[in-house]
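Fold sample X.
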Amino acid sequence: MNRLALVLGLVLLAGCTTVKSSRVRPDYETVDKTQVKRLAVVTQPLPDGKKEVGELWSLVARRYVNQNRDFIAKANVALDGNPEDPAFKGLCVENLEGILWLSPDVKRTGNGVEASVKAQLLRCRDGQEVWAAQAAGSWPSEDERYKELTAQYTSELGPEVSPYVAPTFRLLSATLDTLPRPQLNDEEVTEKIELGE
């Protein structure tokens, strides 16, 4: 009986999993770990067709990878439509080494948000995929755990983003936690600290 309860519990837990899949290049440890560290975050197309929500997605992702994944995310943008250049060569400027592309599908439903994302980390030098993940879920817009975060992003980006903050953070944090960790040298650690995020 205990075994049945354990199996049933694991099945139910698996059904709630946000991240559906993730993969990293097999040569990551020997190639990209020391070469793809400085990123721009791009959200395209716009989630729910709203520029402000796209800006929320890119900003949340930029801050999250800076604080939790050892990348140096230097820029974030939100673009309408589908990418004309899926390698985003036009955004690979200055010393950027990669593009973190978030391709969302988002819609408001009742008191919450249904969202899915296809995410990719692309190398600037050749447009090759370094990492990819897919995730989806449905969350309430109001969540006590994210009350302060919601207030912060609403203050920064406007009241239009308020119902999207908690669901966006929950989806993106789970997705971005599957990113590999680059190896920073001392100079890059200093550069990251100077970003102040």
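Fold sample Y, listed below.
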Amino acid sequence: MGDTRPVYQRIADDLRDRIDSGDLKVGAQIPSRSELKRAYEASDQTVDRAVRVLKAAGYAQGQFGRGVFVTDRTPLGTLLRTTGAVDSPFAAQISAADTSLSWEATSVTTPAPRNIAERLGIEAGDRVMCTQYEYLANRKPVQLATSWEPLAITEGTDVVFPERGPYAKRGVRGRMAAIGVRVVRASELVGSRAATSAEAETLGCTPGQCLTVLERTHYDEDNRPVETSDVVVRADRWRLEYVIDYTA
């Protein structure tokens, strides 16, 4: 039986196979549009669609005026999702031993969007502290996150700004404990979506490329949500590590 895949998919699959096998190495230029058209007897639109698929999967990236080149897909590291992981915004293990880790943060007061209000168990429009994080490895952005905390809990306290004040950089549990709120559990939902243009520019990928998104919410002992956040990383460069301890 003949190959029933659409031509654009066959081109993209063949190029992926060549990259995975090492025939096309990191930094190598993908065959030009004219070469692919000739090899597959395809139209401009079909070839362009195949290359878009390749870019969205993180296998290639365009360079203005030069062409499309194979990208490095070696994992940067692992996000540690364990009870024992340090309760900091950047709980990660980087592959390279000599990597310097840091982060930058900006906090603003804003009305809670409807989806965030639902996650926090508050009304849409209620005031929250929104903190945008950019995590850096050797000064290059590798992870983004946005955190929301109800101001009904933190306003007027020393922890209202997560990265400022006497309890800065202590993580959600440490900061909440400082104002008498005991955080007892967190839940995470893991999903994926396409990168926006702004995210792609920051993370060094292509708009539309697949990102991994972790939606995490912290709860106190009354099962009240006290913080929720979205962590965003490139799906082709990061793995997730979950450690599950069994108790008797």
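Sample Y note: DSSP finds seven helices and eleven strands in the chain.
Also: The chain has a mean pLDDT of 88.
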